[in-house]
Amino acid sequence: MASKAKSRWADDEADAALEAQLKREKEEKKRLKAEKARKLEAERQAREAAATAAAQQEADSTNGPPAKRRRISPNRETSQTAEGRDASNDAPKLLRFEGGAFGRCRSVENYDKLNDIEEGAYGWVSRAKEIATGKVVALKRLKIDPKDRSGLPVTGLREIQILKDCDHRNVVKLQEVVVGEDTSRIENIFLVLEFVEHDLKSILEDMPEPFLASEVKTLLQQLASGVAYLHDNWILHRDLKTSNLLLNNRGQLKIADFGMARYVGDPPPQLTQLVVTLWYRAPELLLGATRYGPAIDMWSVGCIFGELLTREPLLQGRNEADELAKIFELCGVPTEDTWPGFRRLPNARALRLPPSASSKTPGAGGSAVRARFPLLTAAGAALLGSLLSLDPDRRPGAREMLAHEYFRQDPKPKQEAMFPTFPSKAGQERRRRRETPNAPARGQRAADLGAVDFSGIFSGREKEERGGGFSLRMV
């Protein structure tokens, strides 16, 4: 009988060797998997045993005498080993506690940029949408000079720290900090903030009629509430202005842009005088004060109060000297009675002021706030005048402002739900650049006023009309 012919598909020696190798690799993987499972089971049993022992020890300590305390510090006597003994075996064992670890920030690529909003002194702000949820947010990219070897500026660190610590309905909310894909570039740091439709500056520029008295009170109440929260937590904003106040379509105001904010103490430390945008800067800062407190924010609140009434900045100085002249024209010339000790400030020693006390015109050197706002109620004029007091000690705090009679008089503050709405420029287009001063830049030098002559700032005041514009005669 003829032998069976060999098929051309039969396995040869190479195929047999490959099959044997694959079988060995499969068995090795099964062995490693089983060994890993045994280790995990042993660790689990060890943890359960440790937990049981700890629970038993706690129960024994509550029922009987306390157990002997375990030594966790080195014992100098027992750590010194005799000659010929192994020191590693006698070394004391210290307890180790596992600590937390820093996690990596999320990437900015999780957000889709929609449009630019504006550029500020300390960052660029854009409108963006989170890809996963579709939520619209505001992305603020910190301004960092890549050539600066000092790393992340202290202003950025303060802004992140303060925004993470703040939780108030009238303070903008920080959601997270994200970074660019190229983490080697330090300038790719973004703050993810809640998106608010408007800023107060744009609304004042575009609205055809000024806010109603009830609406002004609502805005001031929310501003004072947010400022009071900051001051209660030892935070100075140091750049309050209408472009840093956001307003949503539900009538809720939020304080934003904390690039110049910082924590302070009591007594306040020595600080830089180059803070606050020029038109909202308090007179003590212009005169070189380096120790100041919440009163500088309250001066800015007074400037914002006046701007809400007139729809334009109250004190638009071209430089520091011109800003002081406009302040003295509105608030009066400082004297030792109205502002004790102001001459001791660095920039006040060489000032030439008009002799207001011996002026022939009555009230020529006093405050002109009442004449500047004749339609404001007496309580409103008193509040505005106190906020714009030259002496910082005479300005009310934010809590005192909230309790002022001005807010209890008719018309009462309008409810936020009844507040008018406006088309959102931030949500539709890039905001146009405004001819307004920016906040002081980091590293900028403060101006030295030197000898400035303010003696002629009240010339022509005798021609001004005073009072409310009319009077009634009872017959």
TrEMBL record:
Alphabetized Pfam families for the sequence: Pkinase (PF00069)
Residue stretches making up the Protein kinase domain: 111-407
Keywords: ATP-binding, Kinase, Nucleotide-binding, Serine/threonine-protein kinase, Transferase
EC numbers: 2.7.11.22
Composition bias, Low complexity: 48-59
Region (Disordered): 26-91, 408-448
Organism of derivation: Thermothielavioides terrestris (strain ATCC 38088 / NRRL 8126)
GO cellular component terms given for this protein: nucleus
Reaction(s) this enzyme catalyzes, per UniProt: L-threonyl-[protein] + ATP = O-phospho-L-threonyl-[protein] + ADP + H(+); L-seryl-[protein] + ATP = O-phospho-L-seryl-[protein] + ADP + H(+)
GO biological process: regulation of mitotic cell cycle
Keyword Kinase attached: yes
Composition-biased stretches (Basic and acidic residues): 26-47
GO molecular function, one term: cyclin-dependent protein serine/threonine kinase activity
Protein name: cyclin-dependent kinase
PROSITE patterns linked to this entry: PROTEIN_KINASE_DOM, PROTEIN_KINASE_ST
Family: Belongs to the protein kinase superfamily. CMGC Ser/Thr protein kinase family. CDC2/CDKX subfamily.
